[in-house]
Amino acid sequence: MSQFHLPQTSFWSGRLNSVKVAVKGLHYMLSSQPNAWLHSLATVVVILAGIGRGLTRLEWIFIFIAIILVWVAEVFNTALEVLANAVSLEHHPLIGLAKDIAAGAVLIAAVGACVIGLFVFFY
Questions:
Q1: Counting CB atoms within 10 angstroms of each CB, which of 43, 47, 103, 123 has the fewest?
Q2: Which domain, by its residues, includes 114?
Q3: Catalytic residue check, 74
Q4: What's 102's domain CATH number?
């Protein structure tokens, strides 16, 4: 029976490495996904608008939850696309469907964020 042994690292160096690889993944997403740039622009515009409008603490909470949900959906969508491309670069209907579903999750999050933004900024 074989055992899998992880290299011995200190707790803190392990956490630092986790942060490094996470930042590497985010950098990949931002440099390769055009929609990530749109989300970045929307994030900056909404934060500046919130500062200009003087949002309340509760309004900021709603805004940041909406922003975070969109970013999490985009990150998972990108991860699924990369994984699917690693499996096969040839068109496969099920891989295409999985990518479409993941993109749908981003759309749901983005539309939800817009609705939250409309309520916060205009009602």
A1: 123
A2: 34-122
A3: yes
A4: 1.10.287.3610
